[in-house]
Specification:
By secondary structure, the chain is mostly beta strands. The protein has one helix at about 10; strands at about 15-20, 20-25, 30-40, 45-55, 60-65, 75-80, 85-90, 95, 100-115, 115-125, 130-135, 145.
């Protein structure tokens, strides 16, 4: 399986460790699906969810989609070189676009960046530019909330 080249340069050099109850690998489609308390670990990157899908071309993973369930939301955690603490995020669905260095959180989105926290219906975390964009849910029930510690 190609490596996930993301965030800390050291992470991309680490082996990928996957745990799940079931695994489906379709090399022709460049798709791997892990279900049942699935987790993907590479260096400081930890992604866990009920279902994780990895999309790849012949040389690298291009996109990761993690889908939680009603009992447990999808979870993302990783060290970032520009942050004093881990970046942590939870949401119903987490999409990680690797080349764009963008983490998209959809549904009950929550992100902790350093000592700051953000929540809303949707959140986009631009890793490269260290930017968070939060929006309410489409139905308006999940408004944007944030706490910043200076």
């Amino acid at each position: 399986m190609p490596s996930i080249a993301i965030a800390l340069s050291n992470d991309a050099e680490q082996p990928i460790k996957v745990k799940a109850q079931t695994v489906l690998i379709d090399e022709k489609k460049g798709l791997s699906v892990y279900t049942g308390k699935a987790s993907v670990v590479q260096g400081s990157l930890i992604l866990s969810a009920e279902k994780i899908r990895l999309f790849s071309n012949q040389t690298e993973v291009t996109k990761v989609i993690a889908k939680g369930n009603k009992k447990q939301r999808a979870h993302y955690q990783q060290s970032q070189p520009n942050q004093p603490r881990f970046i942590e995020a939870t949401a119903d669905n987490i999409t990680y676009l690797i080349r764009q260095e963008l983490v998209r959180l959809r549904g009950h989105a929550h992100l902790v960046q350093g000592f700051d926290s953000f929540s809303g219906g949707t959140l986009d975390y631009d890793i490269k530019n260290d930017k968070v964009i939060a929006n309410k849910s489409k139905d308006g029930t999940q408004r944007v909330k944030f706490k910043i510690k200076l």
